[in-house]
Amino acid sequence: MFNEKIVDPAELRHWGGKIELYWIYTSGEAGDRFFKALRDEGKFIAAKCKKCGRVYFPPRMYCEFDFSETEYQEISGKGRVRAYTVAWLDKDEKPLEKPEIYAIIDMEGTDGCMIHLLGEVEEDQVEIGMEVEPVLRDKSEREGTINDILYFKPS
Amino acid sequence: MEIHPNCKWNSSCFRGVMVMEVERISGLKFHKKQDVAIVGAGMTTFKRRLNETGKELSYLAVKQALEEAEMELSDIEMVVMGSAPDAFDGLHMKGEYLLDGSGGSDRPYMRVFVGGGTGVFAPIAGYWHVASGLADVCLVVCEEKMSSSHPHPQSAFKYIWDPILDRPLNPNLIWIFALEMNRYMHVHNIKHEDIALVSVKNKANALDHPCAQLAEKITVEDVLNSEPMALPVRRLDVSPPSDGAAALIMVAPHIARQITDNPVWVTGVGWALDTTMWTNRDLYFPRYVAEAAKMAYKMAHITDPRKEIDVAEPYDPFDYKELHHMEGLGLAKKGEAPILTREGVTARDGDLPCSPSGGLLGVGNPIAATMGVKACELYWQLAYRAGKRQVAKEVTTGVCQAWGDLMQVGTVVVMSNKR
């Protein structure tokens, strides 16, 4: 019976179903600091471990490696490209209208990186180690989310 | 009673429906490498909604446990995380997400979960780590952030049901507990008034717990007149959804000696699951708890739990559940738990204090994180560190228990302050 080839499971006796839930994720203690500073002042906040000196970006209320407390500090928001990819398909594996460049950006003055889009640059111009800076949404449009950063551009 | 001719079970069947039989676990092969002690515990406040992320909650609980044990994160060798359905926090692979707040980075780390039973199952998994000799120091962390889930945390429960048989009826989890409570009351002829006494006791006990969400002085009448949810279950028969985290540290004997003169030993662990076809069980008695308890008692050399257990933290998400579980744990005969409660035996100054923490009914019910009021509380009681919640009698041995999945898992840990 396992040899039969089923192309469309809906031809079998079946029930439909979906998980009808949605979530509200709080940004937490450190996340509040980070997103409020980004939204209200266009500033970038990191957190330095009081014990080992490791600087976390995005900021955290604790050091993950020694469980000490951290102190918040402002950073420039600039960084360097550590790795990048040119995406042709979207999250559902549908073709994108225009390929998008996603990069891991090594944030200046921290031990952390973030992932974001690159803009104002063609894919053949991107290099590992390239200096980039953030381009923010206009203050009136900022909502305190990671999308308040439109993209990073070469600086 | 007619015996179903095709029944493959070693138990009596009535028209093909299984009828309760206990006596399943016959032998127990058990060779441990070393004893296991608990030397520190911590928990966050339990609240309906907290701003902290799940990672931050885990960190706060772990930090407290480390401080109590006077240890550093670098002393921790392995980490066990307990967290129940991903649907609450809204994160698939929640265990991995919670890792960095749980002290799990760069260490052997695993997540375990058996629904509501997780709060006592996670310490059981921590026990394996140390008893097997794989680790001398194991940190156990439990976290739940139910407030992320909308429209209501209850909505997430719909998806634990069989998608074909149960889910099309749009069940609410309270319904099945109402059916179980109804069956329990009917079989033993128990009045709601007697069950409500558990809620009155636990919410009052919680007045002495700094982390409590629903500590209150209430009366039996308050319970009986509270909002009907699925009768006989009313609002004050039930524990609330909560956010929170808890942690405890389990160590080998040579480490325990360096930390404290009075460690608390884990002397027995047990767990068991009953069939997922919950409609085919007789709900009046929690067989899964009885099986789990039998395993744990055997390991702990306990033959008469009612006499040998000094203090208990039975799982109390509903008031009738504490009674139900006391009977499963052998702390009361079937149908006797309400009588013991009425006579004050289970009060904090009674002969068998039950839920001296205030339990889930009073402190809150962040599913897995209820480890804080079950396993952590038992440790605090036996270490004489429970402060205002310390029971009046002298204590040596205690039991904590949790329950979950589709009303089918029992998880039991026995602890003692004598090795």
Main structural class of chain A: mainly beta
Count of DSSP helices of chain A? 1
| Structural class assignment of chain B | alpha+beta
Poorly predicted runs of chain B: 1-25
Number of helices of chain B: 15
Q: What is the chains' assembly state?
A: heterodimer
Radius of gyration of chain A: 21 Å
Q: pLDDT below 50 for ≥5 consecutive residues: which ranges of chain A?
A: none
Explain the overall architecture:
The complex is a heterodimer of chains A (155) and B (419). Chain A is mainly beta. Chain A has one domain (28-154). Helices cover 9% and strands 37% of the residues of chain A. Chain A has one helix spanning 28-41; strands at residues 22-23, 44-49, 55-56, 70-75, 79-89, 95-107, 113-118, 131-136, 149-154. In chain A, the strands form 2 sheets. In chain A, strands 7-6-5-8-9 form a 5-stranded antiparallel sheet, with no helix packed on it. In chain A, strands 3-2-4 form a 3-stranded antiparallel sheet, covered by helices on one side. In chain A, a hairpin with a 5-residue loop joins strand 5 and strand 6. The termini of chain A are far apart. The model of chain A has no long low-confidence stretch (mean pLDDT 95). Chain B has 419 residues and is an alpha+beta fold. Chain B has a domain at 37-150 and 241-259: Thiolase/Chalcone synthase (Peroxisomal Thiolase, Chain A, domain 1). In chain B, strands 5-4-6-10-3-11-14-13-12 form a 9-stranded mixed sheet. Chain B has a two-stranded antiparallel ribbon with strand order 1-2. A two-stranded antiparallel sheet of chain B has the order 8-9. In chain B, a hairpin with a 2-residue loop joins strand 1 and strand 2 (17-18). In chain B, helix 7 (192-205) crosses helix 12 (319-328). The termini of chain B are far apart. Residues 1-25 of chain B have low confidence and may be disordered. Chains A and B meet through strand 1 and helix 1 of A and helix 1 and strand 7 of B. Strand 1 of chain A pairs antiparallel with strand 7 of chain B, so a sheet runs across the interface.
